[in-house]
Amino acid sequence: MKIVFFTKRDGGFALLLVMIAIMTLTLIVAGLWESSQSGWEENTLDRARFQAGLLAESGLAVALHPETEPGDDALRHELAPGRSFEVLITSEEARIPVNSLTEEKWRDATVQMMELWGLDAAAASVAVDSLADWVDSDDDVLPNGAENAYYSGLDYPEYPENVPFTDVEQMLFVAGMDQVAKMQPMWRDYFTVFGDGLVDLNAAPWEVVVAITGTTEDSARNFVAVRNGDDGIMGTIDDNEFDDPGEIQALLGLTDSEWTEISDLVTLVGGVRRIESKGRIGEFEETRIVLAQERAESDGDGYLVLARFRE
Fold it and tell me: What ranges do the domains of the chain cover?
């Protein structure tokens, strides 16, 4: 029988190996615990968002019912503590119809709106004329616009497409829009590719009202305040929906000739509803947006969905 003797030095080395093994196992266990906790938290977050999305879809279903009107109590509903949906119904035609910028009136109005955002006249004109050049059917360059020669110099020989926009996101490809986006990050809220090419004054923000009508900023803000009712919130039950153009003309301080000049750009009844539904689960929120147009009588009651978005 052979007896093996460990020296003091060997014993110290063995102890070191044991300590390293224990530290390694500790790190592995800690890593597994952290990864399982992270996975559990992610699953909880995913479930909350999914359920919030379902609540948002429920709000859309209520809003798309043919008898539901903006501000109805049914559009705000709490199913249980911390579980609710809230729906805002407005007009998509509260926005500038970007595909109408081929007309000088619309270009002038849009330049004025961008100036209200803080752009100088030159930068605004570049963006607006370039938007018009993008959607018109010819290769003639507007005074401050951009046609194929400009985009070819940037290695984009296929631009401009010379067809109407189908999505406002496409506007970002246009010359000058980078400056607009820097000055007004919410610019998407002011343009649309849907509707009849008119602005709904019963829903337009004050900047659009100023740009379209030529009224003063104070008059436009006052008009919007009166329109939104005592609570100051658009899309609620106390809103004042105008059906008499004369009332709007008076509130905006426009002369008969001034109103006549802009009357072919505006409407009081937008044809496309914008429905924004927010579902909430505790602190988590999901938003669904639908653009819908009322069906013709021959097609039955209800709304035809034109587009859906998720935020």
Answer: 68-97+188-311, 118-183
